[in-house]
Specification:
- It is a single chain.
- The chain has helices spanning 5-20, 41-57, 70-82, 99-107, 135-152, 170-183, 201-215, 227-239, 257-264, 279-290, 311-314, and strands spanning 30-35, 60-65, 87-90, 112-115, 129-132, 158-164, 189-196, 221-224, 249-254, 270-273, 298-300, 305-307.
- The chain is α/β, with parallel strands linked by helices and 320 residues long.
- The model is unreliable at 1-23 (pLDDT under 50).
- The structure holds beta-D-fucofuranose.
- Beta-D-fucofuranose (GYE) binds at residues 39-40, 42-43, 116-117, 171, 199, 226, 228, 253-254, 274.
């Protein structure tokens, strides 16, 4: 080969190019994420956190909204497998029924990370990590607040109505159990009605209307598994001519801004915090898994309890 000036220049340019793009530069990580839906303020904040963290990290996020339907999540996961994403993450609508599709992901060697809600599977190797709150503890915290309230208010019998989250969802099951476990210590506290309102405002209002119709003034306390259902119920209580937060004591979970506003207005008595800002931890965990680093099987989020008395002071610090 005759070496000319031109070939030399060409070779130099090729070397310069190769130096600018190091051979080890990985292609951007692709994560397929199946979200529960858009049922609550909590969920909106959770989605924003995940999208935002992915963007900041330069991660290619394939986002699918399941509209609270398990079958949609199964479909989304199968499509992520077919697209050969690097990591699949999802927040399972319900706890059971995941074995088959998770086995498909495992056979395809795609790691699965659970966020927010847990699954019940016989084989824990079907997912690599679960990032989320301790929902049983949240239920207990709600129960402890009520035990305390009852004690400070003459230890009278109190009739409780409960608005449950989505049937079969981990937070609905666990928040119910945690609360029941704690209030069992005081036999004067009785749950007289308990029904699902699917974590939404509209259903919270509807079911509370039905409770008020059948139980009327017998109701002393409302325990709602999330703030949105409590906010819907507040409307029903006001429309029935009663004062929420006074005639009916209201306890809920999440700690979204809407709850702090309701507390400031004296219509909600306490909210137990559940942090939706899981995005940065999810992205970091996904990156670690792909890099072959060990990741914790369970990542729990630290949370507090906010009674109405601190609402005005805390509201400006709230991030969701
Ligand atoms: O409390 C509720 C949402 O799974 C923790 O789902 C989440 C729950 C949250 O709809 O508002």
């Amino acid at each position: 080969m005759i070496i000319t000036r031109r070939t030399l220049l060409g070779a130099a340019a090729a070397i310069a190019c190769a130096a600018a793009i190091p051979a080890f530069a990985a292609k951007p990580l692709t994560i397929g994420f199946s979200q529960v839906g858009a049922e609550s303020e909590w969920r909106t904040a959770n989605t924003a956190s995940i999208k935002d963290a992915a963007k900041k990290a330069g991660v290619n996020l394939k986002f699918a909204d399941a509209q609270q339907q398990q079958q949609n999540q199964v479909k989304a996961i199968r499509s992520f497998i077919a697209q050969r994403v690097d990591v699949i993450a999802f927040s399972p609508v319900v706890e059971t029924g995941w074995e088959t599709v998770l086995r498909e992901a495992k056979n395809a060697k795609i790691p699965v990370i659970l966020t927010d809600r847990a699954v019940k599977v016989s084989d824990p190797s079907l997912y690599v990590s679960f990032i989320g709150s301790d929902f049983v503890e949240e239920g207990r915290r709600a129960g402890r607040w009520l035990l305390d309230y009852a004690k400070k208010n003459g230890d009278k019998p109190l009739n409780i109505v409960e608005l449950q989250g989505t049937t079969g969802a981990a937070p609905a099951i666990d928040r119910k159990n945690g609360f029941a476990e704690v209030i069992a210590a005081n036999p004067k506290l009785k749950v007289i009605r308990s029904q699902t309102a699917d974590f939404t405002r509209a259903k919270g209002k509807e079911v509370m209307e039905a409770f008020l119709k059948s139980e009327g003034k017998k109701i002393n306390v409302l325990y709602a598994h999330n703030d949105d259902m409590a906010i819907g119920a507040i409307q029903a209580i006001e429309e029935a001519g009663l004062k929420p937060g006074k005639d009916i004591i209201i306890i809920s979970i999440d700690g979204v801004k809407g709850a702090f506003e309701a507390m400031k207005a004296g219509k909600l008595n306490v909210t137990v915090e559940c942090n939706p800002l899981l995005g940065p931890t999810l992205i970091q965990t996904a990156q670690d898994v792909v890099a072959g680093k060990p990741v914790p099987k369970r990542i729990v989020v630290n949370e507090g309890v906010f009674p109405a008395e601190v609402a005005a002071k805390e509201l400006p610090n709230r991030k969701y």
